Amino acid sequence: MSRIFDIVVIGGGMAGFSAAAELSETHKVCVVERESQAGYHSTGRSAATFVPSYGPASIQALARASEAFFEAAPNDFAAAPLLSPRGEVMMVGPGDESHMAEGQALGLRPLPLDELKQKVPLMKTEALIAALSDDHARDLDVDLLLQGYMKLFRARGGTVLTKAEVTGFTRHYGAWQVQTSDGDLSSSMVVNAAGAWATPIAGLAKAQAIEVTPKRRSAVLLDLPASANVDQWPLCFGAGETFYFKPMGGKLMLSPADATPVDPHDAWADDMALAEAVEKFQNVIDFEVTHIGHTWGGLRSFAEDGNPVVGFDEQVDNFFWLAGQGGYGIQTATALSRLSAALIDGQQMPEDIAAQGLELATISPTR
Predict the structure, then answer these.
(1) Which domains does the chain have, with CATH numbers?
(2) pTM above 0.90, yes or no
(3) What tens digit of pLDDT does each residue of 186-237 get?
(4) Radius of gyration of the chain (CA)
């Protein structure tokens, strides 16, 4: 394998592979991943929902700009649809009234409680005072999307290096020497798509000290009776995003929507947070949880202002940030990858992304 590339992308999750696939059309690119498989951390543990009204303005713009591709990806990219109907419901209990205006401002419509009961037959509607619905929310097939980008990347001649932890950087005659546990690589440019490890990677490169904080999110799979028909349920969340549940593979995934700052690591679930989520779940669903199934934790990484960090570092040359996507990295991946490729090639923001109102200043590392 050649060790000399135009671009080395650090991080083999959705951000890294989608950007690498775009860049490999015109550049020789290598993706470096510390784990033995792609998408091991945040990507592989995503709740897999496309909700374009979710998140700060920059995220909403990027999600809207990604939607057309998700709706009509080429057959050679994905053999099945990336999106499928789901819908989401905000459950409003006593004391949660202040959140109703927030939901309506995001386009959620009032949902009569008797209609909610039809959608979720086990819902204790007597425990709620109102509900809001977003029929536009859809499931997004994360694995199919990631595999599509990986296939495209390889078809364009891209190189993948797994089980290779980045241990340092040096500069030699203007080129980056990327030191890894599997040997050194040379490239003109480095893309930092390292997710929860983005800040430590930047530190190794002596780039800007931008704090991208990993936050743990816990989840558990629950078995409900077949008669509950959970596959047809919408995603339901407590007002203020205090917990949520959604169908997943014939079971019901429940999360406390926790966001606990942690150091980057192979995350696991917070049992106490899950216990609190189970209690909230039983307050609104007529089902007693007597068995806890498979549990897991994932890391969602945020900059302080909640916006992603995308653009060239101002402290070192040819070091590009693609990090801090928070819990929105999957639904913004297509637009972010095309935007990153354009900026790296010295081009303007793609017109369709600009048309959604994205302001580069809000996501720039120099903000």
Answers:
(1) 4-75+141-210+305-362 (3.50.50.60), 88-135+213-302 (3.30.9.10)
(2) yes
(3) 999 999 999 999 999 999 999 999 999 999 999 999 999 999 999 999 999 9
(4) 21
Q: Which two tokens stand for residue 190?
A: 């480095």
Nearest-5° angle of CA 43, CA 45, CA 50? 70
Q: Facing residues of 298 across strands?
A: 217
Contact 285, 123 (CB under 8 A): yes
Over the stretch 262-278, which tens digit does the pLDDT of each residue have?
999 999 999 999 999 99
74 CB contacts (<8 Å, ≥6 apart)? none
Pairing of strands 309-312, 319-323: antiparallel
Which two tokens mark 315? Answer: 């402290």
Transcribe 188-229 into DSSP letters.
EEEEE--GGGHHHHHHHTT------EEEEEEEEEE---GGG-
Q: Which residues of 351-366 are buried (b: 16+ CB within 10 A; e: fewer)?
A: eebeebebebebbbbe
Q: At what angle do helices 14-23 and 142-155 cross, to 10 degrees?
A: 30
